[in-house]
Amino acid sequence: MKSITFNQQTTSAIGIGTWHIGEGNQQRTTSEMAAIKYGLDHGINVIDTAEMYGEGLSETLIGNVIKDYQRDSFQLISKFYPYHATPKLIQTSLENSLKRLKTDYLDVYLLHWRGNTPLGETISGLEQMVQKGLIKNWGVSNFDFDDLQELISLPNGKNCRLNEDLYNIGSRGIEYSILPWQKQQQMSFVGYSPFGSDGSEYLQIKPVLKEMAQQKHVTVHQLLLAWVLRNHDLLSIPKTASVEHMKSNIAATEINFTADELELLDQSYPKPKHDGLETI
């Protein structure tokens, strides 16, 4: 498993995304739990979830898996709703998440997207959770460049450890300013939906992807994930509901590209020419 520097630690090149995990029948739940266990047993050491995912069902499933693992062997990230972004509600949401996850702390706690609560109040609440030892660090999700600029201008805003946004070959908006700026600020980046989400519904699979995947003897999904990881500078969190898919994702971390291959992909999926944060 290749590694990157993420959240100021040496971390696996991919994490485990858990959107829609825990929302199915017992057979599906058993498959999802086996997939997470396989990932943890084979070098993946980040799990990403949220109170929104199945209204706690994702966190509950994860809690049933990680109780059998040494807690300091992986990082656990969760997120809270923007309408839970006041200091009091942050603590309530966090305590509920910790109970479902069967753990005493989170490595990083994220504001899932920006809402109406002033950012200064949210930062204050998150800093209180750090002081109480309920979280090690905090961050944000789905913030655009202006949001991030405002965030770090506020008291303790520079303590934001990471930002999580949509990123795949068809949604490259963060490359224009967000990603370079976060590198400058030493703020880690998490990219979600490397496959475009929901069976590539939001990502057009063009012939160049199918042809290149065939030439490299990999699947299109493996190629998409490898492309996101190509610069070894961010964490991607593909959702994985089966051991088979987990094995496929892990294998994708070993795929490399030539400069010519990357240029060919850029022709079909151009780099952004302006700011713009896409979300799904």
From TrEMBL:
<dbReference type="GO" id="GO:0016491">
    <property type="term" value="F:oxidoreductase activity"/>
</dbReference>
<protein>
    <recommendedName>
        <fullName>NADP-dependent oxidoreductase domain-containing protein</fullName>
    </recommendedName>
</protein>
<dbReference type="InterPro" id="IPR023210">
    <property type="entry name" value="NADP_OxRdtase_dom"/>
</dbReference>
<dbReference type="InterPro" id="IPR020471">
    <property type="entry name" value="AKR"/>
</dbReference>
<feature type="domain" description="NADP-dependent oxidoreductase">
    <location>
        <begin position="13"/>
        <end position="268"/>
    </location>
</feature>
<dbReference type="Pfam" id="PF00248">
    <property type="entry name" value="Aldo_ket_red"/>
</dbReference>
<dbReference type="InterPro" id="IPR036812">
    <property type="entry name" value="NAD(P)_OxRdtase_dom_sf"/>
</dbReference>
